[in-house]
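Morning run. Coffee first, then this:
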Amino acid sequence: MAGMIGYDAGGWGHGGRLARGGDLVARVAVSVDGQRLDLTNLGKVLYPAAEFTKRDVIDYYRQVAPHMLLHLADRAATLRRFPDGVDAASFYEKNVARHAPRWVRTARLGSMRHEGSDPNDYPIVADLPTLVWVANLAALEIHVPQWTVTSGNGRSTPDRLVFDLDPGPPATVVECCRVAERLREILHDDGLDAFAKSSGSKGMQVYSAVRTERAEDTSTYAKAVARQLARESPGEVTATMTKSLRTGKVFIDWSQNNPAKTTVAPYSLRAREQPTVSTPVTWDEVEACAAPADLTFTAADVLTRIDDHGDLFAGLLAGGVALPQM
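And here it is:
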């Protein structure tokens, strides 16, 4: 079980699972690791095609929490909320909601894109109560930067390097896998361990744990690697953002290393027709991928995978390797 959970009125059932009886009332009071939460509208269907409700979303995040929280700790989260489900309008939220519980940790950070704008109080999703609170907001997607927040509420230099692989139709995640394999070779030659995950949408990402001295170090390195691959395989790879040049190619989005940007967190749900998840995968799975379905995983799939594999991104939590100078 992911922490101590209690309930006041039909909240958490056997084994800590959120009881379906809670779907019948508008508000259910629960205790999560000693923190009181009011969960609302648990029966609301957020993924209509799968009949996947808010209760199911909360249950998924509760169960995946022991692994997911390690990858959210100390990172300023941006929430993508879907109050009326994936078929309706959504919005991104950086500034913590005014009605947030006092115990939700926040970091007040100024914008890196709009100098002089008011700072945002970003939520830090560091514990189970906060993750359950986020899920209750119908924040299906959680996005985080490649840096952590310092003890003084500043930005550290990046500790993760990411390559976001985006296929231009008719290319799919299958073509992304072939590019990911080549990326892994380059990173290995530079002394970096590579970890892959599906995006939960149409592409995938490749990560490495790194040490940096300057905020721009990861962007500089990733841009050089992306351009190298584009030169080597111009018919299959592009490092250019221009959409008209992406048809049938894999776009290596090195710009996701910009400290002002975020990527979807490991184990986050995605707002697709089905409750798919951005899922860590093995390199054997990457090499064997022959169809998009091979790297498509739902919330239920991910919980089974964790039982079988544990956290395939655990290696990212170890100390990073200094990036080579480009």
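The longest helix spans residues 54-72. Good start to the day.
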